Amino acid sequence: MSQPNMVIGMHLGNGYGSQPGAWRMPWVDPRNYASFDAKVRHAQAAERGKLHFVFLPDGPGHVGDIENEAPHFNLDVMLTLAAVARGTGRIGLVATGSTTFNEPYNLARQFKALDIMSHGRAGWNAVTSSGEDVAANYGRRLPSSPERYGRAHEAIQLVQALWGSWGQDAWVHDQASGQFAKGKRIAPVNLGGKFVASRGPLYIPPSEQGQPVIFHAGGSPNALELAGRFASVVIGVAFTIDDARAQRAAFRDAAARAGRHPDEIKFVAGLMTTIAGDRRSALDRRIALTERTFPDRLAYLQQMLGVRLDPARLDQPLSPDQLAAARPSPRDPRSAHALNIAREGWSLRDILAHGVIDYHPVIVGPAVEAADHMQEWFESGAVDGFWVSPDIYDDGIDAFVDGVIPILQERGLFHEDYAGSTLRDHLGVPAQYGVDHRLR
Ligand SMILES: Cc1cc2nc3c(=O)[nH]c(=O)nc-3n(C[C@H](O)[C@H](O)[C@H](O)COP(=O)(O)O)c2cc1C
């Protein structure tokens, strides 16, 4: 029997959860946004379930509806992960760091220091950033895609070169002889490209996993080439098995084109969860969380289904005439699923509570439904795993860990324990120190 190898990461955002309204639930401390203790607690809950990593997206731009909702991001992802590193022992620690708005030397230094601090558990989600709102915070306009990706290719190579600039055997710290390090084994990188440059070296020794693991998130052709060359894990979005399978195949092809083995790149798709004992209780939980958004979402649901829906009749299902006339919008990949839910006879309020307009497929129901979804996608070759966004971190991570994980383990899909101590061990990412010399 081969080892079960479904990869599962946990999304950690603003301290509350992925759903609007999470911060207002009576059992949630409304100050979690600014509480590093809360972030540590949430990561500890994910680690209890043996999840491979926590993932902290970043890209400080628009804060959105600040009158009603918390910003989506962490105060500072690296400081949060530093706290989490000290409060956990095994789980991988992955954060986004923009190649467009950071100097490679700073990225190299911060992620490697985190890797040392966490004993080899750091991962860098290297993205180019895509919003003018983010660029404005750096006093800039967003560069074109070729410029952003040109810089990203150089930046990742340079960061990896800096990571390798301290020889693996250089640090002797021999008190008897008085030799601290072998100076000849620590060399400048002296790399200069069209976009970035650094002399180096970076004065940080290897971590337990050598250096951090590279992640990427994005789906454009340029993103595909970047991930194909450098990424071990792609954080993805897909609403159907067919779409996920096509994306996974495209990333695997890109890795092969770069001279790597396709299995060296793993595609993990997003999954949002509201886990409760039964469908009705789960829907009621979602309604309590998100009902404030329903007027806007109902207007959008009309476009997805191509029929007029009456906001005064939220308690009613679609009429037989409406169902006969409804057509899923080809412009939104979520529309066919929304129509299927409507055909099951749910009220308009319950259709919306199923999360048919969320950022990822959503499980609203008992744990076994999440396990079934994950098994089906995994066994269809659509994904290597998932990154999970619970509705409310304070109890939604526990619901996933106590409900879904044991089912996946029982079915032989998910490991019983971590394979080793580093993120590379957990994911089966091959050893690498410095740049990857195989890249074409
Ligand atoms: C699942 C997912 C997660 C992402 N996370 C981030 C993030 O944390 N920070 C960020 O700046 N961009 C993030 N992005 C945006 C991508 O990096 C990329 O900029 C975007 O997909 C636009 O692609 P393009 O620049 O290749 O056109 C994410 C994208 C996806 C699909």
UniProtKB/TrEMBL annotation:
InterPro entries reported in the protein's UniProt record: Diverse_substr_monoxygenases, Luciferase-like_dom, Luciferase-like_sf, NTA_MOA
SUPFAM superfamilies the record matches: Bacterial luciferase-like
Pfam families for this protein: Bac_luciferase
Enzyme class: oxidoreductase
Keyword Oxidoreductase carried by entry: yes
Keyword tags: Flavoprotein, FMN, Monooxygenase, Oxidoreductase
Domain called Luciferase-like: residue spans: 33-382
Enzyme nomenclature, EC number: 1.14.-.-
Gene Ontology terms, MF aspect: monooxygenase activity; oxidoreductase activity, acting on paired donors, with incorporation or reduction of molecular oxygen
Amino acids binding FMN: 58, 96, 149, 220
Family: Belongs to the NtaA/SnaA/DszA monooxygenase family.
PANTHER family attached to this UniProt entry: ALKANESULFONATE MONOOXYGENASE-RELATED, C2H2 FINGER DOMAIN TRANSCRIPTION FACTOR (EUROFUNG)-RELATED
Protein name: FMN-dependent oxidoreductase (Nitrilotriacetate monooxygenase family)
Organism: Pseudoduganella umbonata
Organism taxonomic ancestry: Bacteria, Pseudomonadati, Pseudomonadota, Betaproteobacteria, Burkholderiales
